[in-house]
Design goal:
Blueprint lengths: L9 E6 L5 H9 L3 E5 L6 E9 L2 E7 L11 H13 L3 E7 L3 H13 L4 E6 L1 H6 L2 E3 L1 H8 L3 E3 L8 H11 L11 H18 L4 H9 L3 H6 L4 H21 L3 H20 E3 L7 H9 L5 H45 L4 H19 L2 H17 L1 H15 L7 H7 L3 H6 L7 H10 L9 H11 L4 H28 L19 H20 L1 H13 L12 H9 L11 H9 L6 H12 L11 H25 L17 H6 L5 H13 L4 H11 L1 H30 L2
Parallel strand pairs: 1-4, 1-5, 5-6, 6-8
Antiparallel strand pairs: 2-3, 3-4, 7-9
C-alpha cells in the first residue's frame, strides 16, 4: 500500500469500547507511540509506528465508539478524522463475543469509502462461550478481509497488518436503504459531490437527508448550497410522510437489520445462551424446514383474506358505478336528447371499461395492506431468507429472489432490480424469470374469473396461480441455466433481518395507498383511453350490424382459432388478450366494453337522487359489516356468517358465465398468468438486456402460456367434466 501523501501509510484503528482496540494498538506499536493534537484541532489523537515487511506503517488509535452518528465527541472525532484525513485504510476491531453489536460500526466505516479490514478480536473467549463464527463467509459477505485475533496474546496481529496493507477493501454501497430512500439519495448525490467534493458522497448525502447540521455546513454558504439543503429537507419530508419516521431513524433501522441478518448468517451458538425475542421467533419463522410451509401458509391466508374480505366492497362499487352512476349518466343524456353514439360511448365504453376495472380497487387495497403488514413487521425479510435457501438448493442465484419478489408488485421494477446482481448472465436469467411472477395488474382478472366460475374456491384458485408462476419460474431458471447460460458461481449477499415490531398505522396506510394509487391513475388514463379505442373499433365501420362484424371483431376473429384447443376460441377473449399487452388490467376493461356494451340497451330508470344516495350509503355500511363478519369468521373456532364464502358478484362476472365453461375459464387464467408481459415490462427488458432477449422473452412466454393453458384445460375438463 502506497500512502496518498508518499509518506508511511496511515491506518486507523476503530472499534467499540472494550472491544480490545487499545490492546491491539499497544501490542503493535509497543513503545513507538505518541499523543499529539490533531493538526488544526484541539483534540488529542494517539498514534504509533509499526513495521511490516520492511515498510513503515502509521497507526492512529481513534476513540472507542459504538457508531459514527456524531451524537458524542468520540463519534465526532472518529468520523471527522476518517472523512477529513482520508487514511489509507482502517482496521475495525470487533468483539467476537458480541459480533452483531460491533458490526454496526463496521458497516458505517465501510460507508465512508475507506478500505477496511475487520479484526475479530477475543476469539478465544467466543469459542469458550460456544460461539462459532464462519470467518470465510463473513469475509465474502462483507467483501473485506476478516482476521480472527486474540489481542492479549498478540495472536494473528502480523497477519492483520499485512492484510490491511495489501488487501483492505471498500464497500460504500454496502447497505440498501429501500426503494424510496435510495431514489432520493441517487437524486441528490451528484449535486453533493459536485458542490463539496466529499470523499464519501453517498455518506454525505445520507447525513444531509438526516438533517445533520455539520453535513449541511460542509456544503458551504453559496446559493447553490442553500438550494441543495432545501431539496434535502423536502426529500426527507417525503420519506417521513411515507414511513412515519424520520430519515435518521429509518437509516439506523436498515443498518441494524443489515447487521442482524449478517450475524444471523455467520454466527452459530450452542444452547443455553440468552437470546432475544426476535431470535426465538426466527427459530420457527426462518427455520430451514418449517420456514417454507409457514411462508406459503401466510401467503394463502393473505389471498383468502384479499378475495373474501374485498368481495362486499367490490359488489358495492359495481352497483354504484355500473348501476347508479351509469343510470344517472344515461338518464342525463336522454334528458338532453344526446345522440345515441354519445350515450353508447360514455355508458358502454367509458363507464363500462373504467368502472369494470375500478371495482377491483378494494381487492388491491386489502392485498397491499396485508403485504405492508408483513413487510413492516419484519416478516418479509424472513421470507426472503427462507426462499433464498430454496433457490440455492435448486441451483439458482440466491440474490435473484429480491428482483423476483419485487416483481409480484410490478414486473418493471423487478426487472430493473436485476442490476444488483453480480454478473450479466445472472441478470439476464433473473430478468427472464421476473415476468412469471404474477404482478398485481393481473389480480383483477383472477378475481372476476375465480368468483364467477369457482366461488367456493376462489381464494385457492388465485393462490394456486401465484404458486404456478413461482414453480414455472424455478423450472425456467433451471432449464435455461443448464442450456443457454451454464452454471455460474453464486455471489453471496446479506439478507437484512430487522427486529420484529408492531407496524405503525400511518406507514401501513401510506404503503397501501401509494401502491393502489397507481391503479387509480391507470384507470383515469391508460384504461380510459383503451376503453374508448375498443368501443370505437367495436362500432366501426359505422352502422355495423353486430360487434362480431366490427373492425375489432374481425381482427380478433383472425387469431381466435389459436385458442380453440384451450377452450376459449371466441373473438371476444382473443381480442381482450391482445389489448392486455398494453396493461393487464385492460383485459378486464375490454371484456366489460365487449360483453356489457353488447347487451340489449334498456331505457334508463327514473332518477330518484335522494333514494339513490341513501342506497349508496346504506350499501357501503352493509359492505363494511359483511367484510368485518367475513374477517372474524376466519378466526379458528369463530363462525359468524353461516353462509358460503363471499364472492364478487359483478355484472361482468355474470356475463362471462355464458361465454366460458369452468375448464375454459381456468385455462384462460393460466394463459393470463404466463403470456407476454405488458409493453412497459417489455421495454424494461429491452433497455436492460437488448432487443434479442426481449423478443426471446416475448415468444418464450407465449409458447409457455399456450402449452400450460392447454394442459390446464384438458386436466380441468377431466376433473370438472366440461
Amino acid at each position: 500500500m502506497a500512502s496518498k501523501t508518499g509518506d508511511a501509510p496511515v491506518v486507523v484503528l476503530a472499534g467499540n469500547p472494550n472491544a480490545g482496540k487499545s490492546t491491539i494498538f499497544n501490542a503493535l506499536t509497543g513503545g513507538r507511540q505518541h499523543v499529539g493534537n490533531w493538526p488544526g484541532k484541539t483534540v488529542a489523537v494517539a498514534s504509533g509506528a509499526v513495521r511490516w515487511n520492511g515498510q513503515a506503517v502509521t497507526l492512529v488509535d481513534l476513540p472507542g465508539t459504538y457508531s459514527l452518528s456524531a451524537h458524542s465527541l468520540e463519534e465526532l472525532i472518529a468520523r471527522d478524522f476518517i472523512l477529513e484525513e482520508r487514511p489509507d485504510a482502517a482496521i475495525v476491531v470487533a468483539d467476537a463475543t458480541n459480533l452483531e453489536r460491533n458490526l454496526y460500526l463496521a458497516a458505517q466505516v465501510l460507508e465512508l469509502g475507506v478500505p477496511v479490514t475487520l479484526a475479530l478480536n477475543m476469539m478465544d473467549r467466543a469459542e469458550a462461550e460456544g460461539i462459532a463464527i464462519d470467518v470465510e463467509l463473513l469475509a465474502r459477505l462483507l467483501g473485506v478481509p476478516v482476521v480472527p485475533t486474540v489481542g492479549t496474546r498478540r495472536q494473528s496481529l502480523v497477519d492483520l497488518v499485512g492484510l490491511t496493507v495489501t488487501q483492505a477493501a471498500s464497500r460504500p454501497n454496502l447497505i440498501d436503504y429501500g426503494i424510496e430512500l435510495e431514489a432520493e439519495i441517487s437524486a441528490l448525490q451528484p449535486q453533493v459531490a459536485a458542490l463539496a467534493g466529499p470523499a464519501a458522497p453517498r455518506y454525505a448525502t445520507l447525513k444531509l437527508l438526516e438533517g445533520d447540521a455539520l453535513a449541511g455546513q460542509a456544503m458551504g454558504d453559496t446559493p447553490q448550497a442553500a438550494a441543495l439543503r432545501q431539496q434535502a429537507q423536502q426529500a426527507a419530508a417525503r420519506v417521513q410522510a411515507l414511513y412515519g419516521d424520520d430519515v435518521e431513524l429509518l437509516v439506523a433501522d436498515r443498518r441494524y437489520g443489515f447487521v442482524h441478518g449478517l450475524a444471523h448468517q455467520v454466527v452459530k451458538r450452542r444452547g443455553g445462551q440468552q437470546r432475544s425475542l426476535t431470535d426465538r421467533i426466527d427459530d420457527i419463522a426462518a427455520h430451514r424446514v418449517l420456514g417454507l410451509p409457514i411462508f406459503f401458509g401466510l401467503m394463502a391466508l393473505v389471498f383468502k383474506l384479499t378475495a373474501d374480505a374485498s368481495a362486499p366492497f367490490v359488489d358495492w362499487i359495481d352497483a354504484t358505478v355500473n348501476g347508479v352512476l351509469a343510470n344517472w349518466v344515461a338518464a342525463g343524456l336522454a334528458a338532453v336528447a344526446a345522440p345515441a353514439w354519445l350515450s353508447s360511448l360514455l355508458v358502454d365504453g367509458v363507464m363500462a371499461g373504467v368502472g369494470g376495472v375500478l371495482v377491483f380497487l378494494p381487492v388491491l387495497l386489502i392485498l397491499y395492506f396485508c403485504l405492508a403488514l408483513l413487510e413492516d413487521s419484519g416478516y418479509m425479510a424472513r421470507a426472503a431468507f427462507v426462499m433464498d435457501k430454496l433457490m440455492h438448493l435448486l441451483g439458482l442465484h440466491g440474490k435473484s429472489f429480491i428482483p423476483l419478489i419485487v416483481g409480484f408488485g410490478c414486473n418493471v421494477p423487478g426487472i430493473l432490480a436485476t442490476r444488483t446482481l453480480g454478473n450479466r448472465r445472472d441478470r439476464i436469467l433473473t430478468g427472464l424469470m421476473v415476468p412469471l411472477m404474477s404482478c398485481a395488474a393481473r389480480l383483477p382478472v383472477y378475481v372476476i374469473f375465480a368468483a364467477a366460475f369457482f366461488p367456493r374456491r376462489a381464494s385457492a384458485v388465485i393462490f394456486g396461480l401465484y404458486l404456478l408462476g413461482i414453480a414455472l419460474a424455478v423450472l425456467t431458471g433451471l432449464l435455461m441455466r443448464r442450456t443457454l447460460f451454464g452454471k455460474t458461481a453464486d455471489s453471496l449477499f446479506v439478507l437484512e433481518l430487522p427486529p420484529y415490531r408492531l407496524p405503525a398505522w400511518r406507514g401501513l396506510r401510506s404503503h397501501m395507498w401509494r401502491h393502489s394509487a397507481e391503479f387509480v391513475r391507470k384507470a383515469a388514463t391508460l384504461i380510459l383511453a383503451a376503453s374508448v379505442i375498443v368501443w370505437a373499433l367495436l362500432n366501426l365501420p359505422v352502422g355495423v350490424a353486430s360487434t362480431e362484424e366490427s373492425i375489432f371483431g374481425r381482427l380478433s376473429g383472425v387469431i381466435a382459432p389459436i385458442f380453440e384447443p384451450l377452450g376459449f376460441g371466441n373473438w371476444q377473449a382473443a381480442g381482450s388478450l391482445v389489448t392486455g399487452l398494453v396493461a393487464k388490467e385492460v383485459v378486464i376493461s375490454s371484456m366489460a366494453v365487449i360483453y356489457l356494451g353488447d347487451a340489449p340497451a334498456e331505457p334508463p330508470a327514473p332518477v330518484d337522487l335522494a333514494a339513490d344516495l341513501r342506497g349508496i350509503v346504506v350499501g357501503f355500511g352493509q359492505a363494511v359489516v359483511d367484510s368485518a363478519r367475513i374477517v372474524l369468521s376466519m378466526i379458528p373456532g369463530v363462525d359468524l356468517t353461516g353462509e358460503e364464502p363471499a364472492q364478487a358478484d359483478t355484472a361482468l362476472s355474470k356475463a362471462l358465465q355464458s361465454h366460458f365453461t369452468p375448464a375454459a375459464a381456468l385455462a384462460f387464467l393460466v394463459f393470463v398468468l404466463l403470456y407476454a408481459p405488458c409493453i412497459a415490462a417489455m421495454g424494461a427488458l429491452k433497455a436492460e438486456f437488448g432487443t434479442r432477449w426481449m423478443l426471446f422473452s416475448f415468444f418464450y412466454l407465449l409458447a409457455l402460456a399456450w402449452i400450460t393453458g392447454f394442459i390446464a384445460y384438458q386436466v380441468a375438463r377431466w376433473l370438472l367434466g366440461g
